[in-house]
Design goal:
The complex is a heterotrimer. By secondary structure, chain A is an alpha/beta fold. Helices cover 21% and strands 35% of the residues of chain A.
């Protein structure tokens, strides 16, 4: 059996950043396994701009962002296998994969980084009733058809869900000559960036219908239309508001789900809210020596954050392999999503791994809130507090905590991340 | 005759609603922004709104039929449609390399259209 | 001129054709759809029923039992996924035991001798996720689960490999009979035959009427289903029924042979035979009723939903036999549940009816009951898989990542005896696109492979035939 120090599963932005960092930190023997025929992951179909403002300090398209990391992988001579599908990860850190040159092969790794990314929620997951014609695509699949295959999926389009991919595709299809009739959003607010609402919808007079959803699909062979209805406060469609909208294409941009089938089979503990592995502040999963980063851990809105998080995972894997700062796993602080918070990453902090000066907690709020404070609290002690004029579930928030403060917390105690409104006591 | 325009600032999640009153091309007042970036954004949107356009161009003999491109710098918003016409007229010969200039000085703006991805030449293409 | 034309390439037509292909006959199967198994055979519970439910003495009872007993051999001959999981009818009140006793007696009369009534403890031991309200159950060890399109496809392919012909996208529009010959008007021209078998499922009354036979009606009865992710595949171990009603066997919860969890169907009499749309009311009904059996059913696991139409006959039983207006027209109609189980037995019975009505059945010595086995890459041992990759690297290229379907599997599905001609047909043959991403990742690749294999441009590749294209035109 082939032995490798570090196997990185996935050659998208997360996998590449992790591999590069691990090698920089002294791991000689790194191997990236990628299922597609090139490195870059989903960025390969992201021809739009808006990437890299935070990480590179300049605005790039998705492909350009990916190219920078692909260059790093090449410059550092990090080997990678393309069109290689991982079939199984053992909890003993064996990785079984298949490709067309080597067949089925198993690698024994000292450490593994999970960077498989995410997939899109489908019509089935939403259980939209009606017929089953062609013409219904997830926004990402449509993006692939248009940007890589060079084909138009249709000419009159309704988009369900105002996530960023849906907004980007509204503009993209409009520019390529399709009529985008509307974007429906079940919630009273969009999860997309304001910038995308302005530049992808408003610029082209595409209506954004908040509190609206698609309640039925029509057409036997090709899609002929959808029924759109307004929803009430409980997100239930109001029958009187139902309206038939003729269209030949329905795009779904209704959320992303981390791809954790391999993680689950390997016995890695998953967080039911993020659908990703439970990780500590070093991005280590419940299985020692297996790390996770990027959209497989939790869905990010900015690739820049993915790169940073993945570098942390790469560095942690390097330390694990080289035997530096490997913590005793028994002493942990639980990070809890408190009032107004949907989830946090990491979900726990290992007390003995506080080798860096600070620990960043990433989290999402549960709703849109104005004039609030975001706080990290242990008991009655507020460690950090930040004011925000507005927070939305669509934008990931962070709080940076000082390691010296965290060391004060006893193992087993909870660190609560919460939203506080003015006038509220302890 | 003063004209009122409502904008949503795109610089941060706060999304300030900004109201601008214009007299022709002259800005009379800007209200509703909460920081300097909002003011600048409103001013630019009302005098010279610009956008980066990204799309694809046709590729001959490539491993993919299209290559991704962008305007190297933002161009005036009113030129987006004409820019797309230029892009749709293009057909480039593979290989295409990231950074290749596809259209020089687009519509006299001084901005080039450049490739943002690589499309290598297809091997075993017909007749070769 | 054919000896026999079978109208309908569903599971019934397929097994009739297969049975007839044992003999020296010229056989043609026609279907209006672009693939086999496109009607009721495509969307049903995929259950091999034990046979305790049908009224003793009916064809349903007789052919269910016979079909059940044949299924193991059939599944081996035709290389069809089949698991004899057993089934449970659960009751939520102690009084239910009387109805279960009745079912048990009925089963005994039908010839199902291994039925057992079990108590709450044993039930929970067998099915840990069963409702705490379930107090007693009828256990039928001989029930099972099967893949219905694989069963139909492989039976039809076996018939074709033994000499039968199949014409798809061939819709029947008129029947005339003159001098012992049927003249069939179809979208693929006039076809003549001596015997005509009506296995047209939902449309078998229309076919009968074309021949002047108004002796029965078929009423579509819709059933809606939801399918859950494979991580829920062992949520139950057996087919879980509730007590049957006059509209059928009710909402069941079952593992599928491919490891998913299937929940459904409800039952709604409708008028439109083409209406396979799901409804929010129907889907919530299915989920709510299923939760009586398994309260912890997690709807977040739903990956798709669909509806099927039962071809409910006006007589209440299967309608199998010569038409009252012409004994050379043989009906195999009204085949609702347990039709999938009964199909092989229906095939035998129809051959027998044909024989009784004058068709000479002469054995064909070279008849082969076995289908050529295709092992998908993922089901190979490591060494087999490596060998396969050496011979054809396409075995090493995974196209559908959710179900681990390789490019070689997809190409093979297009090249097989009855090859896939569209994306859904590839899906039914290989499972590419059946998984949790529902084709989000793999459908562009499947479109590409179909385009290449069939020699058609992308914009002609369809989801399921007709106008169901994926892509409109090139962007540039």
């Amino acid at each position: 059996m082939k032995e490798v120090d570090l196997v990185v599963i996935g050659g998208g932005p997360a996998g590449m950043a992790a591999a590069v960092k691990a090698k920089e930190k002294g791991v000689q023997d790194v191997l990236i396994l990628e299922r597609e025929n090139s490195l870059g992951g989903i960025l390969n179909q992201c021809i739009h701009n808006g990437f890299g403002l935070h990480y590179f300090g300049e605005e790039l398209t998705g492909l350009e962002y990916a190219a920078r990391f692909i260059d790093k992988v090449h410059r550092m001579n990090i080997p990678y296998c393309l069109e290689t599908m991982v079939l199984n990860i053992g909890s003993d850190k064996t990785v079984t994969a298949v490709n067309s040159t080597e067949g089925v092969f198993t690698i024994k790794a000292k450490s593994i980084i999970l960077a498989m990314g995410c997939r899109e929620r489908t019509r089935g997951a939403l259980n939209i009733p009606g017929t089953r014609p062609s013409g219904i695509y997830t926004a990402g699949t449509a993006q692939k058809y248009v940007n890589i295959y060079g084909y138009m999926p249709g000419k009159s389009v309704v988009i369900l869900g105002s996530g960023d991919i849906g907004l980007i595709m509204a503009r993209r299809l409009t520019l390529e000559g399709a009529e985008v009739k509307m974007v429906c959003e079940l919630l009273p607010y969009s999860s997309g960036l304001t910038r995308n609402i302005v530049q992808c919808l408003d610029d082209y007079n595409i209506p954004l219908k908040l509190n609206h959803t698609v309640v039925a699909v029509h057409g036997k062979e090709r899609l002929e239309g959808v029924t759109v209805a307004e929803v009430d406060q409980n997100r239930k469609p109001i029958p009187e508001t139902a309206e038939f909208v003729p269209c030949d294409t329905l795009l779904l941009s209704v959320g992303l789900i981390p791809e954790n089938e391999l993680s689950r089979d390997a016995g890695i503990e998953l967080d039911p809210v993020t659908s990703g592995p439970v990780v500590d502040a070093r991005m280590e999963t419940s299985v020692e020596g297996i790390f996770a980063c990027g959209n497989v851990a939790h869905v990010h809105d900015l690739v820049d954050n993915v790169s940073n998080e993945s570098e942390l995972a790469g560095e942690s894997a390097a330390e694990y392999i080289l035997g530096i700062n490997v913590p005793d796993r028994s002493e942990t602080i639980v990070v809890k999503a408190g009032n107004g918070i949907r989830y946090t990453v990491p979900q726990l902090i290992r007390k003995q791994s506080l080798s860096r000066d600070t620990v960043k907690i990433f989290f999402r709020v549960a709703d849109v809130y104005r004039n609030v404070r975001l706080a990290a609290r242990c008991g009655n002690n507020i460690l950090v507090e930040r004011k925000r004029i507005k927070v939305t579930p669509g934008e990931m928030e962070t709080l940076e905590l000082k390691s010296q403060d965290l060391r004060e917390i006893n193992a087993g105690e909870e660190l609560v991340i919460e939203l506080r409104t003015d006038g509220e006591g302890h | 005759m003063p004209e009122k325009r409502n904008l949503i600032c795109i610089n941060c999640p706060v999304g300030c609603l900004i109201e601008v009153t214009l007299d022709g091309d002259t800005i009379n007042s800007i209200k509703g922004y909460q920081c300097k970036r909002g003011l600048e954004y409103a001013r630019a949107e009302c005098t010279n709104p610009v956008r980066t356009v990204t799309s694809t161009v046709r590729v001959k003999d490539g491993i993919l039929p299209v290559a991704p491109v962008k305007t190297e710098k933002p161009i005036p918003k009113r030129l987006i449609r004409d820019c797309m016409k230029e892009i749709n007229r293009c057909c480039v010969q593979a290989p295409v390399k990231i950074g290749d200039v596809i259209v020089e000085n687009l519509l006299g703006t001084g901005v080039n259209i450049v490739a943002t991805g690589n499309v290598p030449e297809a091997h075993g293409k017909n007749g070769s | 001129m054919y000896d026999v034309v079978v109208v309908g390439a569903g599971v019934t037509g397929a097994f009739i054709a297969r049975e007839l292909s044992k003999y020296r006959l010229s056989i043609l199967v026609i279907d209006k759809e672009s693939d086999v198994a496109m009607g009721t055979s495509k969307a049903n519970s995929a259950i091999v029923h034990a046979g305790y439910d049908a009224v003793p003495g009916t064809l349903k009872a007789l052919l269910n039992i016979r079909g059940n007993k044949m299924m193991k051999r059939i599944s081996e001959e035709l290389d069809v996924s089949f698991k004899m999981t057993g089934s449970l009818v659960v009751c939520f009140s102690k009084d239910g035991i009387f109805e279960l006793e009745e079912l048990k007696i009925r089963g005994f009369k039908n010839g199902v001798e291994d039925l057992e009534i079990i108590g709450a403890d044993r039930l929970r031991e067998m099915e840990p996720n069963i409702s705490p309200n379930a107090v007693v159950a009828l256990y039928a060890p001989s029930a099972g689960i099967i893949c219905p399109y694989e069963l139909t496809l492989h039976a039809m392919e076996n018939a074709v490999e033994n000499g039968a012909e199949l014409k798809l996208e061939c819709e029947l529009s008129g029947i005339s009979y003159d001098r012992e010959v049927f003249r069939l008007e179809t979208t693929k021209g006039v076809i003549e035959c001596r015997y005509l078998v009506n296995a047209a499922g939902l449309y078998s009354d229309t076919v009968a009427e074309m021949a002047g036979d108004h002796s029965f009606r078929i009423n579509p009865r819709k059933g809606e289903y939801v399918l859950l992710d494979k991580i829920y595949g062992s949520f139950v171990n057996r087919v879980i029924f509730q007590l049957p009603t006059d509209k059928g066997k009710g909402v069941l919860v079952t593992p599928t042979v491919d490891g998913n969890l299937l929940v459904g169907p409800n039952a709604e009499d409708i008028d439109d035979k083409t209406d396979t749309s799901t409804t929010s009311r129907g889907l919530s009904e299915v989920i709510n009723v299923a939760r009586l059996s398994v309260p912890s059913l997690d709807t977040r696991g739903i990956i798709t939903s669909f509806a099927g139409l039962r071809a409910t006959g006006s007589t209440g039983d299967f309608i199998i036999g010569p038409s009252p207006v012409n004994n050379k027209l043989i009906h195999a109609a009204g085949i609702e549940s347990p039709g999938l189980t009964a199909a092989p037995a229906i095939g035998e019975m129809v051959a027998d009816v044909l024989k009784k009505n004058g068709l000479k059945l002469e054995d064909k010595p070279d008849y082969c009951p076995y289908i050529e086995k295709y092992t998908p890459s993922r089901k190979m041992s490591e060494s087999q898989w490596n060998e396969a990759v050496k011979k054809d690297p396409a075995h090493g290229r995974i196209v559908c990542r959710c179900e681990k379907i390789t490019e070689a599997d997809i190409v093979a599905s297009i090249r097989r005896t009855i090859g896939a001609r569209n994306v859904d047909a590839v899906k039914r043959r290989t499972r590419a696109g059946m998984g949790r991403c529902q084709g989000g990742f793999c459908s562009p690749r499947v479109v590409e492979i179909l385009s290449k294999e069939l020699g058609i441009p992308f914009e002609e590749v369809t989801k399921s035939g007709g106008k169901s294209v994926f892509l409109l035109k090139k962007t540039k």
